[in-house]
Amino acid sequence: MKFKKSALLLCSLIAVFSLSGCMPHTPSTFLPQGGHRYISLTSSSSRQDAYNWAIKNATSKCKKMGKQIRVVKATNKYNGPTQQQKMTAGIVGSITAAVSHGRMFGGGSGESDDDNQVRLTFKCVH
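Now predict its structure.
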């Protein structure tokens, strides 16, 4: 009986992760501009992920209206730390880990989910 419950739980988890793609959803903030035109602001730790999520979310918004997306303009703004700041964060993280745990292991990369912001201007058209 215990084996059946474990197997069922494992199958359920596999199904959930398969359907979700194991990738967290990154929401977009939509700013209406009038005439079915919008600006979408989406952030992520990588520029490509932010752009992909901006397109996916904008496409979904237009699809709900029975329309298709037409990208007018896309720009990226990097808000994250410089390379020097990332190196410093890694060193500080390693020292802190060594002191608190008595051993060395990798420190933080200094990256966060809002390092790259994509501003996507798009229209929903027929």
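Strands lie at 28-34, 37-44, 68-78, 116-125.
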